[in-house]
């Protein structure tokens, strides 16, 4: 497979290259792509060096699949050009996610929706992916009425500038700010910009994308997204009300048998998910599973995942693996 990685020099792009190699993805030709200022830079993949090329050069090379993580504006401009050249694009930005003509895919949930006609496929937001992977089997079994989610999001979701800001603040030096406020010893209740309704874009991604992936607009969802000074992954406190009652042990068993989910839930052994231990892994970890004693048919959970892997790079590559296995590319 001729594979283009668009945004190859960025944080997610670098993880995509790492995961492609780890999963021994059938890459016959790698095309690292980045903005003009990075053209000519060398990247290494599986011990071999490749020169970064610009966008138009990459379009002209007619990759089979292009894995995009280059921001929404770049995706809006260039994904259609890659698609017109016959390349199937899997995009990590928010540009296409809510487009009614585009599929929003978590392979374990809805890969079967994909057809050969899908030439631009949207990868959901990282905080959405880890939540819906856990919610999907429970929705099927108990029917979700409402979700309340609070997120505790890694600074890697913002990018290199945020990681540098935290390191500067650790060192007590003033540097470029990724956020309006210090992130060291702080928690910032704003991820991305605010919308008219007073929620942030990050919070509304959780609301809108979850409904699209689960194909159910009747689910009521509200979210609060918070940035915290850690790097391992995103954590989420999820409260979910079902139409039907449930048994907590049955919930654990359902999740234990859900592809891509690992249950870590034992108070006696202090077993629960934490981003420090989720970092570098591809699974979504769930624990603190307990009935919400304040409301019937309602459950509390704690969900953690590496936002750069299952939240971005790995999910994207799993979509590409599905396309190949289903002979859609
Ligand atoms: C964030 N999910 O964490 C967003 C974008 N990666 O900032």
Automatic annotation (TrEMBL):
This protein's encoding gene: asd
Location of the active site: 126 (acyl-thioester intermediate), 234 (proton acceptor)
Binding annotation for NADP(+): 9-12, 37-38, 307
Xref: Gene3D superfamilies: Dihydrodipicolinate Reductase, domain 2, NAD(P)-binding Rossmann-like Domain
GO biological process, one term: lysine biosynthetic process via diaminopimelate
A molecular function (GO) term: aspartate-semialdehyde dehydrogenase activity
Residues noted as binding substrate in the record, renumbered to the chain: 153, 227
Keyword NADP attached: yes
Pfam families (UniProt xref): Semialdhyde_dh, Semialdhyde_dhC
Domain of life: Bacteria
Entry keyword Cell cycle: no
Protein name: Aspartate-semialdehyde dehydrogenase
Species of origin: Flavobacterium limicola
EC class name: oxidoreductase
Matches recorded under CDD domains: ASADH_C_bac_euk_like, VcASADH2_like_N
Similarity-based family: Belongs to the aspartate-semialdehyde dehydrogenase family.
Subunit and interaction comment: Homodimer.
Residues at which phosphate binds: 97
